[in-house]
Amino acid sequence: MPRPSVEAQRREQILRAACEVLSDQGLHEFRLADVARRAGVSSGTIHYYFDGKRAVLSAAFEHNYRLSISRRRELTAEGGRPMAALRELVEAFLPRRAEALTAWRVWAELWAEAMRDEQFQAINETLYGQWRRLVTDLIAQAQADGSARAGDPAALANMLVAMIDGLAVQVLAGSREMTADRMRRTVLQFLDGCVAA
């Protein structure tokens, strides 16, 4: 078995730290010195792996997505019951566990910056398109096995994704009206009332 690459491990360590700094401080307070401190490396080490702050940010957004998609793939690979997988996705991505909160905050920073920056728009387009396709595929599979009602799976996926994201942003913003528990009930009610057969 090949030995793990020290460079790959170090890069992963830096990107994990970058996501934590983004989550805790936001993009406008994001400094490479804070990433280095959090990762336990020197600033020079970060510059060895990345060509500056924008390169770290781009890689951190992609790293955050890879972590999210790997969790989603684990959930969706567990046995071929697509409606159950959709419900598991809702449960897994509620913004209440530390890991999920960090991921949501990093997404929110990407979305905010993508409104003004073409590079981050392109990253969002690529990564977010993959998330929508995963949900669309699950809905299409559920329609094929009879557990979801007929309809355009892409339209249903867009509704579901928009609901998850919009409600999660409200939870992150500390809404008294939209708690993680209320988000869960609302999204599952949509799945049961509008998607499930």
Automatic annotation (TrEMBL):
Domain of life: Bacteria
SUPFAM superfamilies: Homeodomain-like (SSF46689), Tetracyclin repressor-like, C-terminal domain (SSF48498)
Alphabetic keyword roster: DNA-binding, Repressor, Transcription, Transcription regulation
Segments forming domain HTH tetR-type: 8-68
DNA-binding region: 31-50
PANTHER family: HTH-TYPE TRANSCRIPTIONAL REGULATOR RUTR, TRANSCRIPTIONAL REGULATOR-RELATED
Protein name: TetR/AcrR family transcriptional regulator
Species annotation: Amycolatopsis rhabdoformis
